Amino acid sequence: MLSVETRHAIHPETAKTFDTTNLRKHFHVGDIFKDGEIKLIYTHYDRMIVGGAVPAGNTLVLDHVKECGTASILDRRELVVVNIGGEGTVEADATYAMGKGDMLYLGMGAGKITFSGAGRFYILSAPAHHTYPSRLIKIEEAANVTLGSQATSNERTIYQFVHPDVMKACQLVVGMTKLAPGSVWNTMPAHVHDRRMEAYLYFDLPEGQRAFHMMGEPDETRHLVLKNEEGAISPPWSIHSGAGTANYTFIWAMAGDNVDYKDVEMVSMETLK
């Protein structure tokens, strides 16, 4: 079963008027991991698609998506699959066995996508202009760097998968950040990048715990309260940062004008309001 929700772009002046219900309607990502379903959100932010596929021991096929305007989703797109669950298999131009934390890049033209096994598959897709080779990157093969400290509650390891330092892609830049026990803050001091949108997915958050995702213009911030396996769509004008009531892991994904990870405008702590 496939379902697709469309999200339109929101002007920052409009976002300032939103109450909690409207903020969640436009920017919250939830309920995308349902047994036996593929659930997608088609955004008008750089035409990024975010979603989930949970075969639950059976088989699911992702092929035609009306919103893309092509016969098959990968006819003019690239796509990344991240497994946040048990052992599973993804089949497209080849068959890929995926464990928890593994990422699979599928290039434009790779064909229909079949999901099977016990995986919980997070899906990210953006328009493509060139076919780059598909590639499975196991979590132990990803480039990684450890930053922060326990003193500032942000000791974390950043895993770079679909990243200029690791491989070539058209638009997508995707990685994963794991916070150490006792650390709860991510991406602070905050930043914005007007040339790229970003999507977050928080997972491995214990039952009953929550992540507070910060968003909005630097001098007009808002927040979303998220539970495990929920996330946020971050417009180019918005900060994207978060803190949890326990440590967690999150996936970050960008699409837009370039793949320059350092093309950001830093926001000082004094600027935040």
Automatic annotation (TrEMBL):
Its cofactor is Zn(2+). GO terms for molecular function: 4-deoxy-L-threo-5-hexosulose-uronate ketol-isomerase activity; zinc ion binding. Pathway: Glycan metabolism; pectin degradation; 2-dehydro-3-deoxy-D-gluconate from pectin: step 4/5. It catalyses: 5-dehydro-4-deoxy-D-glucuronate = 3-deoxy-D-glycero-2,5-hexodiulosonate. Zn(2+) binds at H191, H193, E198, H240. One of its GO terms (biological process) is D-galacturonate catabolic process. Binds 1 zinc ion per subunit. It comes from the Bacteria. Its EC number is 5.3.1.17. Pfam families: KduI (PF04962). Keywords: Isomerase, Metal-binding, Zinc. Catalyzes the isomerization of 5-dehydro-4-deoxy-D-glucuronate to 3-deoxy-D-glycero-2,5-hexodiulosonate. Belongs to the KduI family. This is 4-deoxy-L-threo-5-hexosulose-uronate ketol-isomerase. The gene is kduI.
